Queue: 2 jobs
Job 1
Amino acid sequence: MKIYLDNAATTRLDSRVLACMKPYLTTEYGNASSIHYMGQNNNLVLESARDRIAKILGAQSKGIIFTSGASESNNAIIKGVMLANADKGKHLIVSAIEHPCVLQSARQLIKHGFELDLAPVTEDGLIDMIALDKLIRPDTVLVSIMAVNNEIGVIQDLKTIAKLVHSKGAYFHSDIVQAIPYLDIDIEDLGLDFASLSAHKFYGPKGVGIAYVNPKVKIEPLIAGGEQENGLRAGTYNLPGIIGFAEALDLAYKEKIEHLNTVRELRDYMWQRIEAEIPEVHLNGSLTYRTPNNLNILFARIEGEAILMDLSMKGVCVSTGSACSAHNLKTSYVLQAIGLTLDNLNSNIRFSLGKFNTKKEVDYTVDALKKTVIRLRKFTPIKK
Amino acid sequence: MSLNYTKKTVEHFLHPKNIGELKNPDAVAEVGNMTCGDQLSFSLKVKDGKVADIKFLSFGCASNIATASIMTEKVKGMTLEEAKNFKWQEIVDELGGLPKQKIHCSILASEGLKKVIEAYEEKNK
């Protein structure tokens, strides 16, 4: 049995997306920057994909910059905007629960004379608006707050945050990589100056994403040395990836309601069973302001990675916190930020459901999980 | 970075040896803590200056469980002096290697062993 419940880490490529990509890997392989017909035909295809994406996301086409994924986009936006607008100020704010690529990009800037503040969150994982209000200064250039947290699935109120940030004269960036297809992302309506996305989070290919950059705002290119993307991002266009991005995004919006209902039903069913059948469990984060695919659960007195490995041996793929934190052995700063005690930081599992999951898979997983928890609790030295 | 465990490590994780608590142990000791994500509790029985029996409890990852499991297998029957000098490198070798970010598990296990023997020695001075 192979069961994949780690859809927040990455998703399976939709076969319809692959079919759209195939010609650009095999027969239509011209470089979209070349002047000959193979290049120029692909240039038209590329620009039409850009228009399609812009339309779906409620953004201007010229603001869409193709990248290798959200990690690159986050790096490019945070560093590029701060460097290009240093005359405006040298202060930036990011939330305490950002993805490491946002936090580290911001921290790198400190070495170059910039100042950073972390915006705290409440126990639900929501941005503390009063604290954020107080942190924004006249020299604050950029505020970066993710739409949906990768570990606990908590959804931020981007529109309200954008209004506050703009009222104080700063720019607003959001890492929206976990938001599609769960939120209605309309970039202009939400008031985002910058946004970052990866295709592989919504059944598209890995290695392609976008950085949305408000065309009115100055930005320094992270990858320099080519005229692609108006000089803002050098490198040969990844046309198969870009086509895959556009198609996957289109499908995600078209099939959104069906997808949401499927994962919500499975997620709620899964939590109901776990809560009823496994003692000493606790749901981390707000159930109200949370994407319908995410469950982050504390299993008291046993260790998360042991749970993960035991489930993995039974064919079930889950995660402890974010996939990126799996290797550095550090406890989750996200769970710490929402108030988990130190003793409980190593006992959590993230289940993230996707459109390909079934009720049968959820049942198998809960049955396996029950056995795993019983086995590990048999020999834990931690008393109740 | 790879987190692939050897077959032997997996085997000891899934079917750990010497797991539990000894009744009427001659000494007990605990190393690590929940905040670090690794905790081991050992209980020891000594006969004629040798490790007669040893058991452990674990709050830890797969390699935490596997390292304690294989170590307790290896040190049974050893003199206390031999067991005290049991090196973490031997645990790694016995398992056929450990991912480098998991080496600390073998160190914790050997520290726990030393601690429980020292607790015994302290009591029986």
Job 2
Amino acid sequence: MEGAFTVALWAVRLAFLALLYGFLARAFVALQGALAAERAQAARPAGIADLVARSAERYPLRAVSSLGRDPGCDVVLRDDAASSRHALLTFDTGEWWVEDLESRNGTLVNGAVVRGRARLAYGDVLTIGRTELRLEHPAKP
Amino acid sequence: MSRRAVELRLLGWPVALAATGGLAVALADAGAPDLSTVAIPLAVAGTGLALHLALRLSGSRADAVLLPLALALVAIGLVLVRRLAPGLLPLQLAWLAVGAAAFAAALVVPRDLGALARYPYTWALAGLALLLSPLLPVIGREVYGTRIWVRLGIGSFQPSEAAKLALVIFFAAYLAEHRELIARAPRRIGPLPVPPLAYLAPILVMWAVAMLVLVAERDLGATLLVFGGFLALLWLATGELAYVAAGLALLAAGGAAAVALFPHVAARVEIWQRPFADDLRFGASYQLVQGLFALAGGGLFGAGLGGGMPERIPVVWSDFVFDAFAEEAGFAGVLALLAVFLLLAHRGLAIALRAPTAFLQLLAGGLAASLALQTLVIVGGNAALVPLTGITLPFVAYGGSSLVANFVLLALLLRVSDESARARVR
């Protein structure tokens, strides 16, 4: 009886240790899965982003995209306060840049007027004429 | 599989840990299962499900592993409270419920996490007030020679735990705003960049506060935690190792001066350096010596949960849980325990790396660093590698203030993780 109790107690104690290691192994596997998913996401071709309008309309960007009223622009804006060729967005050395093409009403980043070329981070809001566009990571295909 | 589904599957493990650990402790102690054998796994399962549900309801896409890791620590902690201080178990279960409620509240308030950065000096004031509040007459309490308690009405708490969170938020907000100025200093003295004096001031103020806490509250733990956390964030924000070196030099100089000037600080160092000395081991260093015996007695697989003699260590349930766990679960047990902390810290830093804004990056990095630092300081103290401090082993040791504060810390980390998942998918 005494012996059986001791055996049972040790079985429970060792089960506790085994569960602790089992949990660590499972958590580790889950972490690896998460890391692999992140790596896959990071491996997506760089230089691709979206401009998102207030209306939630998305304009996919290329490495160099022109913005303006002119139908020849990569991002065509139906906004009479925008110039025909208003601004240029470029992906250069790992960062996004916006260049004002001497537009009539100017280009703003987060409310600040762009003089020449300005850096653009994800989440920044670009104002062109009366249109507000936010730079975002691309939508999932 | 979605992150929440992964989380739910992992949450079964902490419950199983609580069930087996609680059963082993009850069998060894009373010879039969008792109420706690049911209460401990139920509490872990209930907390896990409630927090999982809170994350689901808030639509969180946050990391799936953080919550199960923390709950595994909570499960081990409850088992150890049952083992070491069964009378305190109901109180610790109540604190767990408070911690879970604080976690849920921190998931929704504030609605925009970035808003935390809006009033940095309010956080600084709140943090400093909390940190120094034990020095006030009437409400401040001195317990076991350190003055780190505040008594309000019927309850006491350690404000340094809440201060830790407020100060990390302040450091993150302040450094996110000024890091360019601090990092690109115009002048240099040797390898050390010298930022304009106005930006240097917070560093010196933090050092002064850390020293004041050390000398007036005799709280080495909060000193290391606050100043160490600050240096970690300064390094993260500026990338200047020279600042860290300068900060450590300041800390060392201040510490040496405190040892020379104040006998109670010197006594702490004395205990740490020669705990087995004849004049100390039955007196001032008795607790540490018993802890070291427990640590050594554990061996590879320990005496088995409930089979050791950790009750020989005074205040073992709050100061020496690590040594108690080492005695009963052995090297194998503490290795796994430290691995859980390591994964938690790793996950926190990974979240910081991917956070969408500078403030959120620094916030997550600071929270992860303070959790890791707290673990290092108390485990190191239990093993006599650093002077012993009164801070607790996060999520494991008995203590309400620490449990609640660490649940809030966990919620903030999960929210930063959620923000970066959203910024990515949008």
